[in-house]
């Protein structure tokens, strides 16, 4: 790989990491200001509703990463079709967003109960759930636009959009929650307005002369939808696995402890989600490059990009882990405004153990999106399902049953370690397939 190309790849990885941290900053800011205003029960609300964010963001990634990967592959292999992808998938994203808005208007209380809210936090959870669901269109379309703008070679604008919207969210949280005293309503309004700001900033892409994306219908093609869902499914499942894991952990914690233990888990989860977003960002940063190189059968260069992303992600994981362990006291105190001793004790003990998972999830996230980017979707989906769904119950339930909260903290690192072994075996198998079947061949990736 040439120095100039490597420098550009490092730039894209860095921009992807910074940009993708946006949603976690939203949640982190919400949790911090809610804790200061409403105490640890407010933090419990944030933890219970995180799966909603994962679902909406995941659907945006499903359409965005899938559609953008198809877009970049077809720019090389079938240029006439690449122009049809964006407008066709955009309409699907808009419909999904409107569906969430209808849910927010009709049944937020039922959804809050489904998420696990008990009588102690049901009213606050319902209020927050309603506002978040009403913002469904912007949550879905924000990730959709980010993926396409990034693949349309405007990585800087995508990064700026997420960073500015994240800063706005912090300011809006302070204003709406602490100054105006709007409580969970203020938290919801701040969080919902942030992706809207991001979308408005990205709209510049259509006026700066760089865009090859058009909203004008360019003909319907059913295969575009099928390939988009196929290519985007790993990203969706990975995002949803975060929500699924949090949902199951919350349920298990409530079974072996109480809402204060959920609040302690929520404190640690805030740190975890920021790290996971950064890991996903590094993987998304290499996705356009990997898709292009695989389309051109430049396999060695694609694997070099994977190695670069892994090194960057591990560096990020190390910094976050050391920082979280060294400053666990102030971090816990920031989300435990009322100084609840149970929350403080549980979160302080759990922080150093649960976050060991970062060193393994840093690699796993890169492997999952790399496999999807090079059209090895079956392998990518298999790894996501194994890591984010199939392992959760057999690992977490016995650990929690026998060791209570100590077992809960150990569960996630163990899941990530086992998943890494499986992921590395899939990469090894992919290398062998390339060597045996694709060496020297050209043509479309989809077989």
TrEMBL record:
Keywords per UniProt: Cell membrane, Membrane, Transmembrane, Transmembrane helix
PANTHER family (UniProt xref): MULTIDRUG EXPORT PROTEIN MEPA, SPORULATION PROTEIN YKVU
Membrane topology note: Multi-pass membrane protein
InterPro entries: MATE_fam (IPR002528), MATE_MepA_subfamily (IPR051327)
Main location: membrane
Single Gene Ontology MF annotation: xenobiotic transmembrane transporter activity
Cell compartments where the protein resides: Cell membrane
Protein name per UniProt: Drug:Na(+) antiporter (Drug efflux pump)
Transmembrane spans: 21-46, 52-73, 85-111, 131-149, 156-179, 185-207, 227-250, 262-287, 308-331, 351-372, 384-403, 409-427
Domain of life from the UniProt record: Bacteria
Native organism taxonomy: Bacteria, Bacillati, Bacillota, Bacilli, Lactobacillales
